Amino acid sequence: MVYLLNDVSTEGTVNRITVPGNGGGYQVIAGPVSIIEQQIKAGTAQANTTTETSLFTLASLNPNATGSPYIGVSALTIPAIPANMLVPGVGFTGKFIGTIANTGTPTLRTRVVLKNSAGTVVYTLADTTATAMTTVGTVDFEVNFDLMTSSIGTAGAIVGRVSHRYSTTQVNAVAASVAVDTTQGYFLDVLCTWGAASASNTLNVLMSTIRME
Which domain holds residue 69? Predict the structure, then answer.
C-alpha cells in the first residue's frame, strides 16, 4: 500500500503509479477517498452531563497531529471545510466506535453539524433526535454518518443521514436535504447529548475515521 501525504490532516490512497518508457518520469494518481481525520482514544469518557458534547473533544491520540507519520498526543481539532470547496457529488462519511453504558432509560441524541469559526452550530445536517435507550451495562457503541453535496452556492444543499448503535439496538435518522450556503467555510462536528446526568451514563470513543469522498 502506498500513500500520498497531502498535508497534516489528509492522506489519500494512491491507486496507480505509471512509469513511462524512455521519456522518463512518474505519474502518481491519488484515489478518490481521502482520510481527513482519525483519532485513537486515550482519555476520560463523556459522563455525568446533559451538555451536548463533541466526540472530537475527548482527549485523543491523533496520528496526524504533528504532520509526521508518528502518533503524537494532541487535542483533536474538528475537520475544516473551506469556503467553495464543496461541489455536487462531494461528501463525507464517518464512523466512531467505542463503548457506552447507562442507568435507567435516559435519552441519547446524536447529530452531525456544521459550525462557524466561533464554534456556533450553523446547520444541523443529520439528527437522531433524543431517543430513549434501554438499560445496558458497558456495551459496544457506534456512530455512522454520510453526507453528500447536491447543489452549491448561497442556496446550496447537503443530504445527510446519521445513526447510532449500542449493543443490538440501532437508531436511524431519516436522510434529509438541508439548505447550506456552500460559499462559506465551516467546521464539521459530531455531537452527542445525554438526556439525564449520571456518573453511570458514560460514552467513550475508542477510535474514529472521517473520509472525504
Answer: 34-212
Phi, psi of 169 (to 5 degrees): -100, 130
Confidence of residue 213 (pLDDT cuts 50, 70, 90): confident
Q: Which residue, chain included where needed, has cell 483533536?
A: 76
Angle at 72 between CA 70 and CA 74, to 5 degrees: 150
Instruction: Please state, in angstroms and rounded to a whole number, the distance separating the CA atoms of residues 99 and 73.
Output: 21
Asked if pLDDT for residue 134 goes beyond 70, the answer is: yes
Question: What is d(CA 140, CA 40) in angstroms, rounded to the nearest whole number?
Answer: 16
Residue 56 lies in a domain: yes
* Cell numbers given for 70: 508518528
Is residue 182 within 8 Å of 84, Cβ to Cβ? yes
Q: How many domains does the chain have?
A: 1
Q: Which residue has the cell 453526507?
A: 147
Strands 80-81 and 186-194: antiparallel
Please give the model's pTM, rounded to 2 decimal places. Answer: 0.78
